[in-house]
Amino acid sequence: MATAALAHAPAHKHHTSTGLDSTKIAIWAFIGSECFFFASLISTYLIYKGRSLVGPFPHEAWTNPATGEVMKPILNIPVTSFSAFVLLMSSLTMVLAHSAVLRGDRKFSKIWLLSTAALGATFLGMQAFEFTSFVHEGLTISTNLFGSTFFVLTGFHGAHVAAGVLWLVTLFFIDNKRGLGPRDAINVDVCALYWHFVDVVWIAIFALVYLIK
Amino acid sequence: MASIVQPPSVVRHQARYEKGLLSWLATTDHKRIGQLYLYTSLVWFLVGGLEALFIRSQLWSPNGRLVTAETYNQLFTMHGTTMVFLVIMPFSAAFFNFLIPLQIGARDVAFPRLNAFSYWVFLLGGVFMNVSWLLHAAPDAGWFGYAPLTTKAYSPGLNIDFWVLGLQILGVSSLAAAFNFITTIINLRAPGMSFMRMPIFTWMSFVTQFLLALSFPIITVAVTFLMFDRFYGTNFYTIAAGADPLLWQHLFWLFGHPEVYILILPAFGLVSEVLPVFSRKPLFGYNVMVYSGMLIAFLGFGVWAHHMFAVGMGPVADSAFSVMTMLIAIPTGVKIFNWLGTLWGGTLRFTTAMKFGIALIALFTIGGISGVMHASPPSDLQQTDSYFIVAHFHYVLFGGSMMGLFAGMYFYYPKITGRMMSETLGTVHFWLTFIGMNLTFFPMHFLGLTGMPRRTWTYDANQGWEFNNRLATVGAFMIGAATLLFVYNWFKSMRSGAPAGNDPWGGATLEWSIPSPPPDYNFAEIPTVTSRTPLWHGDPGPGPATYPAPFTPVQPRTAAQLGITMPTPTVKPLIAAMGLGVAFTGVISHKNLFLILAGAAIFVGTLYNWLLTPLEPEHH
Amino acid sequence: MTGHHRARWSRFVALAPWLAVALAACSGEPNSIFGAHSQFGHDVDLLTRRLLYLGIAVFVLVETLLVFAIFKFRKHEGNTAARQTHGNTTLEITWTFIPAVILAFIAIPSVQTIFRTQGEAPAGALTIQVIGHQWWWEFRYPEYNITTANEVYVPVGRAVNFELRTNDVLHSFWIPQVSGKRDLISNHTNHLWFTPDSVGAYNGFCAEFCGASHANMRFKVFAVSAGQFAEYVAHQQTGPVFPLALDTTKAAKGAKGAPAAAPATVPPTPAQLATGTWPLDQLPRWVVPATPIPDGLADTMPADAARGAAIFKTAPCIACHTVQGVSAGIIGPNLTHVGSRTTIASGLYPNDHAHLVAWIKNAPEMKPGSAMMALGQSAMGAGGLTDQQIADIAAYLSALK
Fold first, then answer.
1. Rounded to an integer, what distance in angstroms lies between the CA atom of residue B90 and that of residue B34?
2. Which residues of B fall within a CB distance of 8 Å from C4?
3. Among B73, B280, B322, whose Cβ lies nearest the Cβ of C110?
């Protein structure tokens, strides 16, 4: 995808109308598109909010009329707040990684790239834990409108985080093998833009799904 | 510049991809990719046209029984889906690919391999969707696929699975291309080419790319919901779980309305290139044409629910969308007047390209007028879901988009092939198409006004509909004949058309400054641009006395001779697309996990390899 | 070259008178939207005509300018140099402003009409519940406790308020000659109201693609006088006309193997036959379906309604259909007074013995996708109904006036 490939630092830069690398412009176009993707998912969640015919519900308890079973509100705000914090911190380490690459600090570029990946993986781990406990408590993707909208929205977000982790790990391995220097900063920059975007989407989801009743 | 010495391995690798089938499979050249899109779209045009002829034949008489109701529903669904996604969009893409780098003075697009990938995925999507015919399980719920009819409860077969998965594949192709062209147009313009000096086709295409990038995610979400409902039992459109069918409609039309501007703006751009050249004066109101294009795109995201006036949204919503829709008629109408202004005072030469350009003005006006009529909800409650709507959108899509695309094809044929198309055959093609088109679609206005509903397999006798249906059927066959003539002209002229030089028509913009067909590097030296019409130098002049303009053939130098490094051809985009194909085939074959994983592995593996390989060979 | 442009010019000139004639002719067509047999229809009609005339005016203006330009500015001896204009700000403003004004002439009456016609139905409106099914129409009058199918009677001069629901997928309720349409949306209740202003028989169509037999999902609307409507309601409220009391004293036993002789029956009274329905011989031609019967389904053997009544009581029919006092199925249309309807199969075939027989024999072949299974022996084999049984049931249904 990059005109400047990752295998070797490019010998020369192509002339561009803006002075910016084409990859950077492309990632912004991509992010713009992704905004509409997540906006559609979030809108659907909000439209169907409060319209499930059966529980479990996110913020209220529900008694199953057939069995008499009482289901607690299923969202766990404290735990999710922590995972949100983890993801937020990963944006910080991402910034540090980019800065290290820019100044050619190979030791710290590796540390921060790996940290970002690790924090991202931690977030994913906590998401996996949340999903499995929900299923255990009776909320699946097909239980009700909430189950469908919640799992699909957060699931797609998680998939985006996973893709980002894969990207970070790849960058780490390249850094480990031949080093990432200032000439490679554009690739780390583009990864950072993507990573921050994914983080911002989570802030929106966390606010609209978890915090706002 | 001294010529570059390539290492032997690179020379061997490149030679393998110089000629023959492999050169097409491994191409990253935007000009070749453009031709691939063009020929593929032509095939789908004939397929979609055949579907139309079956439809029209079935509707020749009341209570026709040429095809069963089930088959008819597949025919009209595939006709619409094919013409929108597999014909008009990729014909436009053919021009984006071939023309944009030439018009902005670039050597290629920003991401040539991604460009090839877009094409192969498009090919995959079209084939995937049409394979359903072989199983007599073609999609059958309309091109708009309203829930809950498309849910598993009411469409248990494979038909809608093909539709849903096919659309997802095509979405990948369109999105990748949009990112590519947005970057190309922003970043690869020749020195001196500010945005307001860009050719108008590039401008309209630029706006279109934003529409694509922002609207396709919405349909991706809508279709993903349907896919998950059908495959994993989610409840997005499950009535029993309290779902709202209007969710599908809102999401679909939030995509669907920008989509119609995606379908028309490139054609508008092509006509805006053609008219000035054959009027020998610049485009009238270039600035306004640019701003109106941007305004149409922006407002286009705010009118979607005018497709839903009959669903009972309430008077406030109805009124709001009605007013917004009427508003969007203004920048659209302004374009018509600016084209008239372009013709006015000119010295008009009626080549086939010009005829088609003028036809767009005449016919899109009719479609635009019926469109404004739909904008009034109370009146629309009679018009919607009747043949009056069918008349409207065929006037804007055939009379608008296709006429513009034909104008572009006749205009740019010499640049693509180096030869001239037969003007005689072109004239016959034009008149047959123009008359046939009007004969087919004008009577449909009357069918709608006299109460004939649309998407109907058959209609009863004694309703007063037979005569107009017969006119429409005759017209459809005329269009069919005309199209076959066009295809014949296209291929015959490649072998026996008069050779064309750089600039057969006396054009204004950069693409006419290089050989026909252009060498792989496009421009020996990237030009510096100082005006909107670089070749006219302020005065178009009378133009060539005869077409093509006389020229002295010159053998262009090779890239190596000029010291220009060209990208290495590669089959990785093709293989990555094939990986996707394998994965999607796995999904539709009862979720065959092996195929899905194998396909994903091929896709991801190839992608990794491709991303880690430089585009161009290294310098030594 | 000149003949060329004359041809193009004459094409546009030839179009214009055709337009005017065609428009005039439109109003006389069977399902014309200019029929407007209700106040709602008239409101919409006015708006549509205004749109049409404005549209035609714009069409004539633009096409005339275009044709004029083609003619006048073609390259010829009198025109060899093009005027190098780049634009004209005054013109741009003018042709932005004038269309905006024209659109205001459309927007304002549109918004006014929207609010007028989408407001609450007038007090005292007759509520009719419409439930769409794949592919037939169920109609209920809650005020009168009536359930019928595929035909709806409304009194002239009284507002009728349709409550629209669907049992399955999306449909749309459209009577072109009377009013605009309204969709039937799952999990929603929509409303459409109008006041019929003249006696008439009208065609109704489903106008939202709903699957295999979307084209076959039709209905009939009869706007009748208040008196006739009262008669209709009274009749529908009574039980089935066909007498259930059989005169068993005169029953004869048939020879072995021959069908049982028909038990004698008590004929219906004149009051029972006062159905209030539209006389079959007074139906306009376009309201009578002309759908052909598929080969092999029709037959003309003699049939007996009383025998049919007896067979019906244990036939598969009772699982899906309601005949008041006899069966209580709710999957298919209510058949209590099916004999007095003008069509069967949701407006697809005329309601007569031959069509009933064909329908019962093989409904899916008569109407693709029909939920009613084929009941004849050619389709079902030995377990199906015999041709004689089907004929008898058909006779029974025809007698259920």
1. 9
2. 350
3. B322
Q: Residue A70: phi, psi to the nearest 5?
A: -100, 125
Which chain B positions have a beta carbon within 8 Å of A151's beta carbon? 234
- Interchain contact, A51 vs B183, CB within 8 Å: no
Active site members of B? 79, 108, 143, 173-174, 257, 259, 261, 272, 306-307, 332, 335, 454
With 80 as the cut, is the pLDDT of residue A125 above it? Answer: yes
Assign residue B259 the CATH number of its domain. 1.20.210.10
Distance from CA of C337 to the nearest CA of B (A): 25
Q: C76 by DSSP, 3-state: which?
A: strand
Name which of C332, C83, B217, C4 is nearest A43 in CA terms: B217
Say yes or no: B165 and B87 in one domain: yes
Search chain B and give the residue with CA nearest A45: B236
Distance from CA of A148 to the nearest CA of B (A): 5
Q: Which one, of B303, B302, B358, B369, lies nearest residue B332 by Cα? A: B369
Domain membership of residue B482 as a residue range: 20-538
Is the Cβ pair A33, B613 closer than 8 Å? no
Per-residue pLDDT averaged across B24-41, rounded? 97
CATH topology of domain C2-74+88-117: Helix Hairpins (1.10.287)
B214:A36 CB<8 A: yes
Convert the pLDDT of each residue in B228-281 to its tens digit: 999 999 999 999 999 999 999 999 999 999 999 999 999 999 999 999 999 999
Spell B225-244 as b/e; 16+ CB within 10 A means b. Answer: bbbbbbeeebbbbbbebebb
Quick count: other Cβ atoms within 10 Å of Cβ C306?
21
Given a cut of 50, whether residue C7 has pLDDT beyond it is no
Q: Are residues B397 and B477 both part of a single domain? A: yes
Q: Quick one: pLDDT at residue C261?
A: 54
Q: Which tens digits make up the pLDDT trace of C247-280? A: 444 444 444 545 555 555 666 677 667 788 998 8
Q: What is the mean pLDDT of residues B82-108?
A: 98
Q: Which of B113, B151, B235, B523 to mutate to test the interface with A (most CBs of A within 10 A)?
A: B235
Selected residues 220-239 of chain B with any CB under 8 Å from a CB in chain A: 220-222, 224-225, 228, 232-236
CATH 1.10.150.120 assigned to A77-211: no
* The pLDDT of residue A13: 57
Given this model, what pLDDT does residue B618 score? Answer: 57
**Yes or no, beta carbons of B611 and A3 under 8 Å apart:** no
- Burial of B577-605, coded b for 16+ CB within 10 Å and e otherwise, reads bbbbbbbbbbbbeeebeebbeebeebbee
**Which residues belong to CATH 1.10.287.90 in chain C?**
2-74+88-117
- Cβ neighbours of residue C197 under 8 Å, at least 6 residues apart? C37, C38, C39, C156, C157
CA B79 to chain centre: 15
Q: What is the pLDDT of residue C238?
A: 87
Q: Identify the architecture of domain C246-399 in CATH.
A: Orthogonal Bundle (1.10)
Task: Tell me if residue A92 falls in helix, strand or coil.
Answer: helix
Instruction: Please tell me the total count of domains within chain B.
Output: 2
Q: How many residues does the structure list for chain A?
A: 213
CATH of domain C126-237: 2.60.40.420
User: 10 Å Cβ neighbour count for B499?
Assistant: 14
- Comparison of pLDDT for C341 and C266, the residue scoring more: C341
Find chains touching chain B: ≥3 CB pairs under 8 Å.
A, C
pLDDT at A10 over 60: no
Confidence (pLDDT) at A55: 84
For chains A and B, CB pairs below 8 A equal 130
User: Considering Cα of B610, then B612, then B615, then B620, what sign does the dihedral take?
Assistant: negative
Q: What is the pLDDT of residue A15?
A: 80
Give CA separation, C270 vs C276, C304, C336, in Å.
Answer: 12, 21, 18
Confidence at residue B613, expressed as pLDDT on a 0 to 100 scale: 87
Across chain B, mean pLDDT equals 95
